[in-house]
Amino acid sequence: MNMSATTKHHVTIKGVKDGLVFLLDDVCEWNALLQELQHKLEKTHEQILTGPIIHVYVKLGKREVTEEQKEEVRSIIRHKGNLLIQSIECDPIEKPSAQADRAIKLVKGMVRSGQTLHHDGNLLFIGDVNPGGTITCTGNVYIMGSLRGMAHAGMDGDESAVIAASHMRPTQLRIASLISRSPDEWGIEEAFMEYAYVKDGKMEIDKLNQLHRLWPDPPQA
């Protein structure tokens, strides 16, 4: 089999205390990876892969594979009768940290009538949202200015999202799929430093200095 330069380093074999680790490249084309694995088992590494039983640990990196693809790897390695596969593992998917979840995008300006400002994540908007203007966000919306248009937080279904504003006089608020009552129904003529949130399936409004009640500090290590 003719191995080209582009496929020379898709498979790395390293010795460990109790066997061998096969490190398989996680970005190359799958068939090229299998071809090199087979080539190294049958040709270039044949001498070190002979003899008594050798335990093999296969590492797939960040590549997402199906059970059928794992079986393809097993099938190739099993052809060497002395190689005993102990595990075939992928790197765990990293979950966003709590700090990343709270990351905030800063935007300055003004949202005028007919304009829509959208952001995936949490948004801190410094400026006014005029009547007819709209802010939509998958996370929380914080407005340092007047909200006199429409704001939609948690638009992908996150009911834990909040909408906060220095001056809250919106035409409409939405959190996830919930639509607010109008400010008139809240019984508040002018709301300053307020935030809207969902409680028991209904949207409520409270002073910003009470926001910490929704997000208690994480336990200290």
Automatic annotation (TrEMBL):
Residues 11-88 form the Septum site-determining protein MinC N-terminal domain. InterPro entries: CAP/MinC_C, MinC, MinC_C_sf, MinC_N_1, Septum_form_inhib_MinC_C. Residues 107-205 form the Septum formation inhibitor MinC C-terminal domain. The keyword Cell cycle applies. Keywords: Cell cycle, Cell division, Septation. The keyword rRNA processing does not apply. PANTHER family: SEPTUM SITE-DETERMINING PROTEIN MINC. Belongs to the MinC family. Interacts with MinD and FtsZ. Cell division inhibitor that blocks the formation of polar Z ring septums. Rapidly oscillates between the poles of the cell to destabilize FtsZ filaments that have formed before they mature into polar Z rings. Prevents FtsZ polymerization. This is Probable septum site-determining protein MinC. It comes from Paenibacillus eucommiae. The gene is minC.
